[in-house]
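Revision sheet: structure tokens.
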Amino acid sequence: MSKQPNYLNDRLCLNVLAGSVENAKECHDATDGHIVIGVLSKNYITDEAAITDMKTYIAATGNALSIGLGAGDPHQSAMVTRLAKTLQPQHVNQVFTGVAASREALGQNETVVNGLVSPSGRVGYVNIATGPLSSKAPAAEIPVETAIALLQDMGCSSIKYFPMNGLACKDEYVAVAKACAAADFYLEPTGGIDLENFEEIVKIALDAEVPKVIPHVYSSIIDRETGLTRPEDVKALYEMMQKLV
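Predicted:
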């Protein structure tokens, strides 16, 4: 693997998207490296194009690369695994059913690999049917503790809890955070997080004693005209992070 960024030793690390390599570097610098930069596999037609471009992000940020699906698109699962094998990034986003394949392809346990589970509408339960076929089938709602154990069996590092819609499912999220803490498992809250609810969402996980929290803050801090993530917003989030840990 390439040079490891600071975030590997952090309890709290930010995950944002970048619209360009320069934008990625600006966001990286705004957090003193306490960040991973999401680049979406869905934006590329071929593996070769993705690998060529993502290598420039790796070079610009000391391999603070997070290979993304693209709004949790399960049809990107196989491509993410192929890219991860070649690029050996610091962070990989996967659907529940893609975790084992990505871990096997990576051939090491250092890269953080998340597994996507969704709110179920019931406290203490999550929907694990997030794969290419299972996402089209009836929901598979199981106890969050069992979901974590299954993910651990597959070599997963963390739950990606998506879509949260901010604090719309707060009670469910609290239960997920407590379960992650009990299992010494990482948590990545995702969906609808912005400058207003960021602190509360992160504090819930930290108060539950989750060992590592990686909040994903995406569209709310992206300039609609340029498509770039606003470095000043990233800096504001980083300042909140420093107060929380």
